[in-house]
Amino acid sequence: MIYTRKPIDILRQIPNVKSNKSILSVLIILSLSSLVYATTEEFIKKPRGVPKSKASLYERKGPNWTCLDGSGFIPYEAINDEYCDCADGSDEPGTSACPNSKFYCENVGHIPAYISSSRVNDGICDPECCDGSDEYDGKINCPNKCEEFGAEYRKRVKEMEILRAQGVNKKQEYIKYGQKLKIELQNSLDFVNTDLNAAKIKYADREAELKKLEQLEKTKSDSSHLPVKEYNERIKKYREKVKGLKDQVSLLQGNVDTLSRILQDLKNGHNQNENDITIIKSAITAYDEFSNDNNNRGLEDFNEQDEIDDELLIDDHEVPQVHDPEPLPFYQEIWETIANNVYQILGLEESENQDRINKPETSRELQAAINAKEQVEKDKKELENKLNDINTKLSKDYGKQDEFAKLDSECFEYDSGEYTYSICMFGAATQKSNKDYSSTHLGNFAKWSGAQSKDDPNYYTQQIYANGVRCWNGPERSVKLNLECGMDNEIISVVEPEKCEYHLKMKTPAVCSDNSFRDSIRHDEL
Ligand code: MAN
Fold first, then answer.
1. What is the pLDDT of residues 334-355, one digit of tens each?
2. Distance, CA 470 to ligand 1 centroid (Å)?
3. Residue ID of nearest Cα to ligand 1 atom 11
4. Helical H runs in 40-96?
5. DSSP-H helix ranges across 270-326
6. Residue nearest to atom 8 of ligand 1 (CA)
7. pLDDT for residue 120 is more than 90
8. Coiled-coil region(s) at which residues (predicted)?
9. 501-508 and 490-498 as β-strands: parallel, antiparallel, unpaired?
10. What does pTM read for this prediction?
């Protein structure tokens, strides 16, 4: 290459040149230089550090050349003269003169690359420039390793291609799953909505029925409710009466005994062969005495018994009513006590009268209405929860083709030594200490953030989990989850570049695409 610093320095003065003499000398020099450059075709086509694709920008069209950003124009020879003229560094693509310039390594046999121009001729063989073109000043010899690197790269690409294809297949399964799920959710949304509307109507009916029944019972109860005390008194009275009846029975039994004895005496003392007037007289006297003593008391008492029955008879309308929050078991107990007492006293089998004294008919009806209303209310609540779940799922952004639906609520962990990080997809991110097992909330899923627009293929490659526990003297904890193509779902790294800001890298088939692996390899290489 030919670099002539002197004429360039003169040429830099072009805009300020005033005298004709100077102009003449400049023109002479320029025509000489153009002769020189015309012989170096390579330079004209492509200065050092410029890719072929940009060679046209450096085409010689006259004595001067305009910086690519338009910040100035310089003599054509000033390109790559190790002096930085242009603000954008475009005049020094092949030297380290401009700090903001990029040097292009062609890397034939491997992948071309740009390096910062500050690394040109710095005495280090940069692996990114495997052809060694960045070290051309002879201070160091960088052998061309592009063939070797290229072969290794191509081998890796091939392996990765196989994995990528598998990943893409798996992603297809995810897509199928997600789309099926969305259809199912949509369908069940319709069903659940229909069921819920029916349940609401049913609930309103049951509620109205119950209210009506309650009102009815209340009306009855208000007019006829017997206090418990009164029932107890009646029981007491009834017991006394029954006791009286038992006494009557013993009295009558005594009467029967006495009459039997009189007759027995008559029979025993009677002599069939004689006119035995003394025995008959004594029997008549004994009967008169018996008759005077008893004076038919037993019969009178039995008549009284009818009155007792009437008095103690409990009308249907006197049955205790259910109005208090838990009245039924209480009254039921009372009723059972009453029934048991009466049955015991009368010596009857409980079952014979169970239907009459058992739980009152109206209470059973009321309880049935309460149960029915509660059941419908339960069904309604379940349907409402179901509807909520469905709507929440339907509103989630599971990716362009619903490929992330499969991962919803799946949790993945990564042990970094001090902490175990976990992410439950579309849920929460957590940091758990491996020392004391204390857990810190790092945030909840907030949004996709791989790019500004959903149309950008990178949009679904990053998630943000936000609003975690606030850092002491700092921001709320948050997580950036970067996704890259992999056969399995796994977190592969966690870093905390800023306090309480966590960057997680995760592999997943959900982001595999036709070029995802090539991109990631290239990214690793560069
Ligand atoms: C805890 C962890 C760390 C974090 C500090 C900030 O120790 O959550 O990740 O950097 O708190 O105080």
1. 556 655 665 565 555 444 444 4
2. 10
3. 471
4. 41-45
5. 277-294, 297-312
6. 500
7. yes
8. 196-255, 366-393
9. antiparallel
10. 0.53
500 contacts 471 by C-beta, under 8 angstroms: yes
Ligand 1 pocket, mutate which of 437, 500, 502 (most atoms under 8 A from CB): 500
Residues with CB under 6 A from ligand 1: 431, 440, 471-472, 496, 499-500
Q: Tell me the three state secondary structure of residue 448.
A: strand
Q: How does pLDDT run across 31-49, given as a tens digit for each residue?
A: 333 333 434 444 456 899 9
Cα of 485 from ligand 1 centre, angstroms: 30
CA–centroid distance, residue 500 to ligand 1 (Å): 6
What's at 179, amino acid-wise?
Answer: Q
The first and second tokens of residue 412, run together, are 């993945």
112, 118, 123, 129: CA torsion to nearest 10: -10
Q: Which residues, at least 6 apart from 218, have a Cβ–Cβ distance to it below 8 Å?
A: 321, 323
Determine the Cα–Cα distance for residues 383 and 275; give it in Å rounded to an integer.
Answer: 104
Position in ligand 1 atom list of the atom nearest CA 431: 8
Helical segments of 317-469, H only: 327-346, 350-357, 361-394
Supply the pLDDT for residue 127. 94
Residue 218 binned pLDDT confidence (cut-offs 50, 70, 90) = confident
Nearest residue by C-alpha to atom 6 in ligand 1 = 471
Angle of helix 228-269 relative to helix 277-294, nearest 10 degrees, comes to 170
- What is the C-alpha separation between 246 and 340, in angstroms, rounded? 18
From 440, 472, 503, mutation site for ligand 1 pocket: most ligand atoms within 8 A of C-beta:
440
> How many Å apart are CA 396 and CA 177, to the nearest integer?
15
Whether 86 contacts 98, CB under 8 Å: yes
Which domains, and CATH codes, for the chain?
Answer: 228-348 (no CATH), 409-525 (2.70.130.10)
Whose Cα sits closest to atom 3 in ligand 1? 500
Return the axis-axis angle of helices 350-357 and 327-346, rounded to nearest 10°: 140
Please name the helix (run of DSSP H) or strand (run of DSSP E) that holds residue 504, with its range, or none.
strand 501-508
Rounded CA gap, 225 and 228, in Å?
Answer: 9
**Residue appearing with tokens 């899923």:** 445
499 Cα nearest atom in ligand 1: 10
